[in-house]
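Database export, one record per block. Field names are fixed; values are copied verbatim from the stored entry.
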Amino acid sequence: MLNTPSSEIEDEPVEKQSEEGAQRSFASLVERHSQLVYRIALAVTRNPQDAEDVTQEAFLQLYRGNRWEQVEDERGYLARVAWRLAVRRRKPGNMELELPAQLYSHAASPEESAMDRELEAWMHGAIDRLPEKLRQPLALAALGELKLVEVAKILGLPEGTVRRRIFTARQKLRQMLEEQKGGSHEQRK
C-alpha cells in the first residue's frame, strides 16, 4: 500500500475540475468580448491581420496574467488593452483599409459600389489627416459599442474633453467634405 496522504489523492480531481471551470470561464469571456476587441483594433490598425493579432495578444495578456476573474469591468479593461496594443502596432503607411468586397454587395450597381468605395476611401483618408488627439476619440466613438464614459476611460481623458474632441473632429470632417465637394464642382466646369 502507498503511504500517500488521502488529501493529495482527493485534491487532484478538484484541481482538475477547477482548472476546466477556469478555462470555460475564460473561453466565455473571449466569446463575449472578442468582437469589440477586434473592432477597436481594426479602427486603429486599419488592417484586418494586425487587428486579429492585437485581439489575440489582448486576450493572451489577460490569460497569462491570470487576472481575468479579478477584472471588474471586463469590457472597459479589454478595450483599453486593445487600444494600447493597436496604437503600438499601427504602421504609419497603413492608412488605407482594404475591406472585403462582400461589405459592398447590397444589390447595388457596379457604379454605386465603386462610388461607395471611393467615398469610404476618401473618408478614411480624411480621418487619417485629423490630428491624433481628434482621431482617437472619433474612432472609438464610431464603433458604436462604447459609451462616451468608456471612451474617456480608454484614453485616460475627462469625459468633457472626449466629447469636445469628437465634436471638433466631426466639424473638421464636415469642412473637408464641403471643400471636397467644392473642388469636385470646380473640376467639372
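Remark 1: The radius of gyration is 23 Å.
Remark 2: The first helix runs from residue 6 to 45.
End of record.
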